[in-house]
Amino acid sequence: MNVLGLEARQVDNSPGQKPILYLEGVSVSFDGFKALNNLSLYIDTGELRCLIGPNGAGKTTLMDVITGKTKPDSGSVYFGQTLDLLKMDEPAIAEAGICRKFQKPSVFEMLSVFENLELALATHKGVWATLFAKLNNHQRERIEQVLETIGLTEHRSQLAGILSHGQKQWLEIGMLLMQEPKVMLVDEPVAGMTQQEVERTAQLLLSLQGERSIIVVEHDMEFVRSIAQHRVTVLHEGSVLTEGTMEEVQNDPRVKQVYLGD
Amino acid sequence: MLATLYKQDKLAIGLLGCIALISVLVPVCNLLFPVDSVMHFSAYTVSIMGKYLTFALLGLSLDLIWGYCGILALGQGAFFALGGYAMGMYLMRQIGNRSVYGNPLLPDFMVFLNWTELPWYWLGFDHFGFAALMVLVVPGLLAFVFGWLAFRSRVTGVYLSIITQALTYALLLAFFRNEMGFGGNNGLTDFKDILGFNIQSEAVRGSLLMVSGLVLIGAFMASRWVMLSKLGRVVTAVRDQESRVRFLGYRVEHFKLWVFVLSAMLAGIAGALYVPQVGIINPSEFSPLNSLEIVIWVAIGGRGTLYGAIVGAVLVNYAKTLLTGWAPEIWLFFLGATFILVTIFLPDGLVGFWQRHKHEQKQ
Ligand SMILES: Nc1ncnc2c1ncn2[C@@H]1O[C@H](COP(=O)(O)OP(=O)(O)OP(=O)(O)O)[C@@H](O)[C@H]1O
Ligand SMILES: [Mg+2]
């Protein structure tokens, strides 16, 4: 923990907490192909949930549905008890507190590292407010803090486009932090990272759980094992194959078959 | 990033200095020195310089929406023409009973159509203040309605470019019609006074040039301030990765709309300054070809820099003045060829080339 200067949070992962995200019977099809098939998933407040599954299982599509990028053919998606996410568009969902890191690192390459974080800052996002926006001391400190956390302090004025793949991943995680979301959707955060960077990412995500709900999609099983303290969900062909602790899931013969069979 | 901005600033300051110098020196020398003096600038030079400056403003307006927002708007000429018509209507009302038919209330073309009273949309244009307001409101409103529909339904890329061309073409056809009440084919011309002063006089022409220079400098500073604000960074982000910006909570369509309306208003101002200096506004200003030319100015100058647009507009139009005097039929071929050569060899335009050159020199 000390590497990042972050304190581990007291995590209450006892089951029976109120879910913050409800997905029920969600189906998405692309030209007849069912990317999500009657999928149901509940994420608890403060939970760190790992989502695994073979290529094409529908993990990214699931995130697309939650963040408003893709509208499902059927099903319902609720944030908390009352917010119907299917009636909201991307900015509204982001403002409500659901933020996302993309599978392919998506930073603004023509802007500096600092400016990338500045744009992500949780503040008024209207046109006029943005035109007259000035960073106050508190916000400046917040950016500095996040720069420190993601280890890019020295690269602050560099264009994001010239960062390494791993650094871009970190920058995008930093942008997530700047948004101070209630729910973080993190799609393949450690792809292209060195072993050391992977460990730091694990520490970071662990330190955030409890305060925020986090869904992490990752193929790197060692990484998943290091952060999966509670529940892991396995997705296959657009629906939930099984759910349980990492151990339970790994010993499930169906999971073995899915991973070996493809 | 900061270093390049500083470098850009020095260039910008030099350019603004040039504009200020031209817009003061040319009219002053025109007035002060006798015709046979080497220091004398002819009335022709005054009016052509004024025209270039309004084109520079028009190029600048396109750079906001194309260079920064990434929207290749191919109908910028429409906003320019609308601003021009608003000013033209004021100038028509200033003619009063000095027209050929001598009708104190109606412009000649309305008398010719046997109209007996002024259409409602001409009311108020005898006041300069009202006309000046319309120079902003009419292009701004059109951009607002058009942009609201287009951006909200997420029309982008080539489709958006094509419908902006269609927009200006539709206006071209509409303004050609006599019944529209804007003088049809002939447009509005034969202006006499502006604010009570003789529009042909050298003092007024010189003043118009100065005002054009002043407005261009003001518009440049304002645009630069906007693009250096956080809004400018959001807009740049939209250009490079539109959908990502949405997931940060920004309503991308509102940002595009805001810049589009600003850009349309600047184009309108350019048109309003252009018309009194050339003495006519007619539907040909809506021609889709005009809007394409504006794109070429900005591409040649270098987009996304603001001053690139100014440099491009002035240079291309200077070349146009030279060439059309000499061999008008090859102008379009020349323009097309230059455009192709620039896109191949100078993708960042002249300004981009200059910057790279400077950069290499340093190393
Ligand atoms: N926009 C689209 N159009 C057509 N098919 C799509 C689209 N998006 C996803 N798919 C298909 O839906 C299926 C699920 O894709 P998705 O990206 O959700 O998988 P994934 O679990 O994230 O896989 P990976 O681990 O490779 O990232 C895939 O077969 C994919 O080809
Ligand atoms: Mg995926």
From TrEMBL, chain A:
It comes from the Bacteria. Residues 21-262 form the ABC transporter domain. GO terms for molecular function: ATP binding; ATP hydrolysis activity. Pfam families: ABC_tran, BCA_ABC_TP_C. Signal peptide: none annotated. One of its GO terms (cellular component) is plasma membrane. PROSITE patterns: ABC_TRANSPORTER_2. Transmembrane segments: none annotated. Keywords: ATP-binding, Nucleotide-binding, Transport. InterPro entries: AAA+_ATPase, ABC_AA/LPS_Transport, ABC_transporter-like_ATP-bd, ABC_transptr_urea_ATP-bd_UrtD, BCA_ABC_TP_C, P-loop_NTPase. SMART domains: AAA (SM00382). The keyword ATP-binding applies. NCBIfam families: urea_trans_UrtD (TIGR03411). This is High-affinity branched-chain amino acid transport ATP-binding protein LivG. It comes from Crenothrix polyspora. The lineage of its organism: Bacteria, Pseudomonadati, Pseudomonadota, Gammaproteobacteria, Methylococcales. The gene is livG.
UniProtKB/TrEMBL annotation, chain B:
One of its GO terms (molecular function) is branched-chain amino acid transmembrane transporter activity. The keyword Transmembrane applies. The chain crosses the membrane at residues 12-33, 65-88, 100-122, 128-151, 158-176, 203-223, 255-274, 294-318, 330-354. It is found in: Cell inner membrane. It comes from the Bacteria. One of its GO terms (cellular component) is plasma membrane. The keyword Metal-binding does not apply. It is a multi-pass membrane protein. Keywords: Cell membrane, Membrane, Transmembrane, Transmembrane helix. InterPro entries: ABC_transp_permease (IPR001851), ABC_transptr_urea_perm_UrtC (IPR017778), LivM-like (IPR043428). Its main location: membrane. This is Urea ABC transporter, permease protein UrtC. It comes from Crenothrix polyspora.
